[in-house]
Amino acid sequence: MIEIKNLTKIFTVAKQKITALDDVSLTVKKGEIFGIIGLSGAGKSTLIRCINMLEKPTAGSIMVDGREITTFKKHELRAARQKIGMIFQHFNLLSSRTVFGNVMFPLEIAKVPHRKAVKRTLELLELVGLTEKAEAYPSQLSGGQKQRVGIARALANNPKLLLSDEATSALDPQTTRSILKLLRDINSKFNLTILLITHDMNVIKEVCDRVAVIDNSRIVEVGDVLNVFAAPGSPVARSFVETVIGKELPTELLQGSGTGDGQTEAVLVRVAFIGASAGEPVISSMIRKYDIAANILYGNIDRIKDIPFGNLTLELSGPSRVLQDAMDYLRSRGLEIEVLNNV
Amino acid sequence: MFDAWLVERLLLATWETVYMVVLSTVFSYLLGLPLGVILVVTSPGHIMENKPINRVLGWIINAVRSIPFIIFLILIIPITRLLVGTYIGTVASIVPLTLAAIPFVARLVETSLKEIEWGLIEAALSMGAGTWSIITKVMLPEAKPSLILGVAITAISLVGYSAMAGIVGGGGLGTLAYYYGYQRYDNSIMWPTVIVLIILVQGVQMLGDNLAQRINKKRG
């Protein structure tokens, strides 16, 4: 759907050149929800704005739906933009228009005949659950409702691609979840490709199929969300993952409570579950099978696109040889084991 | 004091002032509004960025605005004559009033339109809106309350300017106050004139405030 090659964007501010995007290449497949995560200033906002040419790239190529968008003439670009919806962090709704008028706005721009436009607007309001608010003005709506209007507006001209520019960053967690659910629904309902940028790893976890991590104007990592969560390959990605699954352990724990007495040994391990293994009682069968004690210090379980995902921090104690066997057993069951410290 | 003659003169002069102010406000917006829009859309980073046009227009506007109205009035007498045939009288004074108000209006409109959040324009761009749609469907409607207040400010300034035009025979309350009040030093006509002027200005401001507020209230 989107093919970005060697995209570079350099801003000149007060005669100083600032590189916002440095040789970025990326492919977004049709029908997927692709997330780009980065800290503020990493370049993600510039990147998403290049895809509908709100920012003109300095160099590189961007293919959207098989067509090179960077060389479009003005009228071609206008036509192309009608097929690329965009939603914004601050919603950007017209205060001069009602909800109805806001949703109808892109249809007016596309010169859709009035009757058809009214019909389509009603459909869209129904889709986002705001039929009753049709005559309200944006200032009379909550943040979540405003973003629903934004989404309805973005979908008006049946786009093939939806760009989401930090669409949930101004919303509380609960509202964020409902907006993300709506995005997922329209993604599956219309096979709509969604490209979103965020600084919140929870957003990636909740809706994305694949994720790219952008740092310092460069893409440092791309992969399936699950894989990035399980094995982040870059320090930035790791720190983002940790914001969601809280891998940081209190230091008292690492210093250890138990003591080895020669025969038995204690070891602190972190066990990561992905997919099916998270649903199995692996730990209890390990304890039954090997004569060791397991003390659960910390654990959590989460879902990424309906695949269970979690981690446990355990203190295992027992004879050192048995401990090794037990850990090998866990590995053989598809769990990732990390020894944090020999207590 | 309020004899029939005075009342009649006052009513006529008030009518002339209202006539001059209303028409010159309308005419100055016919040109000033588009100029204000051009000032904004050609400014750096805006939807029709164009440095030369922006600079030249800004310079001309500043130049006209820096001429005191009383001098401007005399300077453009040839133009007034060309357009109206004379430079004396109520109709004739609409020409200098309009021409002087155009750059003023352009700056007021510019200020109103610059208050619009860029995000709104960006959203419209992202939908494929062209320049004309953005101006007529986003910028002007969004700035409407502020534009209305600008109209009130313009009309009020023109009430003042029209009094100056009155000194060179423009008619209206200015002429009345100048001839009878100043040259004859007749206070009995000066004060009623001033009171009518105050009422006019208050009325215009109230009307503007009311309209703007009503729109803002509707938008919540």
Short description:
The complex is a heterodimer of chains A (343) and B (220). Chain A contains twelve helices and 14 strands. By secondary structure, chain A is of the alpha/beta class.
Number of strands of chain A: 14
Largest interface: A-B, 32 and 21 residues
Rg of chain A is: 25 Å
Structural class of chain A: alpha/beta
* Count of helical stretches of chain B: 10
Low-pLDDT runs of 5+ residues of chain B are none
Note down, in words, how this protein is organized.
- The complex is a heterodimer of chains A (about 350) and B (about 220).
- The model of chain A has no long low-confidence stretch (mean pLDDT about 90).
- Chain A has helices at about 45-50, 75-80, 100-110, 115-125, 145-155, 175-190, 200-205, 225-230, 235-245, 250-255, 280-290, 320-330; strands spanning about 1-15, 15-30, 35, 60-65, 65-70, 85-90, 160-165, 195-200, 210-215, 220-225, 265-275, 295-305, 305-320, 335-340.
- Chain A contains twelve helices and 14 strands.
- Chain A has about 350 residues and is of the alpha/beta class.
- The mean pLDDT of chain B is about 90.
- In chain B, α1 (about 5-40) crosses α5 (about 90-115).
- Chain B is about 85% helix and about 0% strand.
- The longest helix of chain B has about 40 residues, at about 5-40.
- The interface of A and B includes residues 108, 109 and 140 of A.
Task: Supply database-style keywords.
heterodimer, A: 343 residues, alpha/beta, 6-stranded mixed β-sheet, 4-stranded antiparallel β-sheet, 12 helices, 36% helix, B: 220 residues, mainly alpha, MetI-like fold
Describe the secondary structure blueprint for this structure:
The complex is a heterodimer of chains A (343) and B (220).
Chain A: E1 2-13, E2 16-28, E3 33-37, H1 44-51, E4 59-64, E5 67-68, H2 74-81, E6 84-88, H3 99-109, H4 114-127, H5 143-155, E7 161-165, H6 173-190, E8 193-198, H7 201-207, E9 210-215, E10 218-224, H8 225-230, H9 235-245, H10 251-255, E11 264-274, H11 282-289, E12 293-304, E13 307-319, H12 320-332, E14 336-342
Parallel strand pairs in A: 3-8, 3-9, 6-7, 7-8
Antiparallel strand pairs in A: 1-2, 1-4, 4-5, 9-10, 11-13, 11-14, 12-13
Helix pairs in contact in A: 3-4, 3-5, 4-5, 5-6
Chain B: H1 4-41, H2 51-65, H3 69-75, H4 77-84, H5 90-114, H6 118-126, H7 131-142, H8 144-167, H9 172-183, H10 187-218
